[in-house]
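Thread: Newbie trying to understand structure tokens

Hi all, I'm a second-year student working on a class project, and my supervisor (Dr. K.) asked me to get a predicted structure for one chain before our next meeting. I've only ever worked with sequences, so writing a 3D structure as a token string is new to me. If someone could post the tokens and maybe explain what I'm looking at, I'd be very grateful. Here's the chain:
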Amino acid sequence: MEDTPTTRRVAVLVATCSSFLTPFMGSSLNIALPSIGREFSIGALVLGWISTAYLLSSAMFLVPFGKLADLRGRKRIFVWGLVAYGVGSLLSGLAPSVGTLIAARVVQGVGGAMIFGTGVAILTSVFPPQERGRVLGLNVAAVYVGLSVGPFLGGVLTQQWGWRSIFYLNVPLAAVIAALAAWKLQGEWRAGDGEGFDWAGSVLYGLGLVALIYGFSRLPSALGAALTLAGILVLALFALWEGRARTPVLELSLFRRNPAFTFSNLAALINYSATSAVGFLLSLYLQSVRGVNPQQAGLILLAQPVVQALFSPLAGWASDRVEPRIVASAGMGLTVVGLALLYPLASSTAIPYIIGVLALLGFGFALFSSPNTNAVMSAVDRSHYGVASATLATMRLTGQMLSMGIVMLIFALFMGGTAVTPQTAPRFLTSVRAAFSVFVVLCFLGVFASLARGNIRAQPAPAVQS
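---
Reply by user tm_fold:
Sure, no problem. This is what the structure looks like when written as tokens:
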């Protein structure tokens, strides 16, 4: 079917709105976590699981749903993902206990996986290569607008109506986007009709990822070590299975024969591993150590995503004209500097200093994200857009989980199960400094992964054979 200007406009609208929705939820929830902790009387480790449960379930299902979208239709998976996301949001708002809330976040994560694995793939399907950087830049900007609005609006909602109102707000937003996509978005953009679906590979992938991330979060206990090792072994078995499967859920040849695709995804994994927990740590720091209210904390954290939203379209436009690896690597380098500047965080650190560092991080993220997305999607044939989009989103979510996992491991070592309060501030700040030291080293290594991808314009994107 021909992709008309109307189809393109609707695709941009629904993909952009959905790209706003999920980061808005995450960033607004960061502000609400201290309030949730007080209501349910839980410590920092359990609070971390409210975020991690969503990320883990999303990462589990991203690649399988990306493949299903390629086979059955990207619009179909996209719309049902919005429905699942809305249901998970409603259940989260109604949750009577922290266990129920974590379970509802898992449902929300499944819906998020269906959205992440299809939104960028739909955009890449309807726009020609010479326009993708600009459109993907707008899409990434929507992510950062969600991150921008989230802390402020989340703070207002939490202070005025309680943390549950954040989840309730997501229900009508998801419903409106789903209805618009179902009604106005013409086309399914599927490939590989008649192919079977690799159920065994999908199960191995999900089990391996759960064991790895959950085990990592339980280190240094014996159970954590055993689960981490089991996760690695199951993922190795998954790789062997995919190499022999007739219709693999993940085309490993995308990695073996395509260094641009491989190193762009590796750069994304490292970048998100080094940066995703920054908002979580600073939200706890501002509210529990500095004593600011949720609304004030949201305004302070606003600096980073506002700068991201302003500069992401420009970075996407630049990646249409300059090699994406140059722009993205420069962004990663600036991020290293920003993380290093947060290392000496103390109870007396000036708030303007924190805002300035967050703005620098926002500029670095903007330079990295949309050019890196452009590099990933330009490195594959159109029949693999769904899997490529899902793989990149998996790198992002796995990186976010690893980032939270690093923080939870450090909390376990330095704080145990105690809550973050003014009395435990010294131990908390020691944990924060340890986390930022790890993040600086990770992000520094990520610069080299970003540079190693090569030039995507040196040759046409390879068509990988199934």
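A couple of things are worth pointing out once you decode it. The chain has two domains: 5-187+249-451, 198-248. The radius of gyration is 21 Å. Feel free to ask follow-ups in this thread.
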